[in-house]
Amino acid sequence: MYAVNAVDVVQLEKRFTRRKDGKKQSKPALDGITLTVGRGECVALLGQNGSGKSTLVRVLSTLLLPDGGSAAVFGHDVVRDPQPVRRLVNRVSVEASFFKRMSAMENLSYAARFYGLTPADTRKQIPEILEHVGFPLKRASGPMEELSRGMQQKVALARALLTSPVLLLLDEPTTGLDPRSKREVQAFIATMRETHDTTVLLCTHDMEEAAALADRVGILHAGRLLALEPIPELLALYGGADLNEVFFTATGNALAEDSEDDLEEVEA
Amino acid sequence: MGSVRLQFIGLWGVVERNTYLIKRYGWWELAFFVWTIANTLTIVFIAKGVQATGGHIDVQRETTSLLIGAVLWSYLGIIFEFMTETVAWERWEGTIEYTFMAPLSRYVHLGGVALFAVLYGVVRTTLLFIVIALFFGLHLHGADFETAIVLLAVGSISFAGLGIVTSVLPLISPEKGAQLGFIAQGLLLVVSGVYYPVSVLPHWMRWISVISPATYALRGIRNAILNGAGLGSQWGNIWPLLILGVISIPLGFAVFKAGERYAKRHGKLKRSG
To answer: Which residue of A has its CA nearest to B6?
Structure first.
């Protein structure tokens, strides 16, 4: 039985295999990760590409089966009991991921049905939420492909919020956004926490974003969680002046560098 | 009860999404329809061609027989296309992860796609049949259309089941899955007597035709339209369709579940393209 944290991950393992020089190689994407995220907390995980951030998010989203260990969302095991997990979780990833020819309104409408929202619900809620995320309603009926990336990402946030997730998984939600859109999205995430009591697991490259939003920050490197502490304790632990120095001291790499093997791109 | 209601709303969501897509790709829909008309015409003209080159056939009857084959093949193609693209299209657009992480039962998800495919297929193939029949001035006075529709409805159950089986292919093999779906569809085309009786096939191929629902649907629909055969005399075509339907739907779901598990184990449930 799990304690009812928002997220309970124990010794989580996931390996991926790829072919290199004609030979199959197996590498760990998650190498025995253990962490908890409390209800209402915001935890940021810092890591390079290929460090295992997206793999962890996909396990918690029930999209990937782990090879070992366990993961639970509000006490529901993601492998044995995925259906309740799906009701509680939503996600915003670096790719906005919509049917590009369909409008924001259409994309949000059908997606909301998958979570049980009726046409009467969405007719009222979609304009409200789009307005809330700063998306101009007059653009809501045009094809998504005609929107900027920042606008698309706001629709992605609206999609997540529409389903009232208790746990929001944010996988580099502001990567590639212009500074203004980035600030707006970050402000919106902070508002969501305050107004909806949403628990947030934020995976990011962005130290400032982590510092601005998170209660605790974790350092993920080569599938291993090296630390997970509030920022002042991390600074004290690694003796750095800021998170950049902490990350470099902990991993031997700068955060902006890619790790040697980007396992997200080479899954078997 | 609440959960059943949620699943029905989800089912509507799948139908709604595909309706939006048809609307947004309206010009492509029109282009494909015109292409299907042209393709069907070239097939149906074969009957006149045989007569013009000295063959002795009942042109009206053969024209109608070829038309039924072409129309049913078009219908099957629509169902297979929708089912296979359930995964392939979502993978391309990147929505696949959002659909598979939603609290939507996989039965409802695939059932919704099959329901939309059947509804859309019926509308499009009915239009196709009318256009071609008018073009050739076919007289179908003695045809039993009610029986033909019943056979199409019963056959659709197994078509949907086979469609679900093929829809798993892009899930387990992102690159080759859609191509394999086409190959499966092509095999059905050869063995099911779409344009010729299955009796002309080599003996070993006739055995394969026995397990194709299209064989019975085509035979029954031709019998109803060309000979006016009523439902009472069609039991020989209906019971195999029912059995294939009862087998193919659970088989389709089981195969898809296994494929989904494989995809989740190997990290294939994600966007490509």
So the answer is: A116
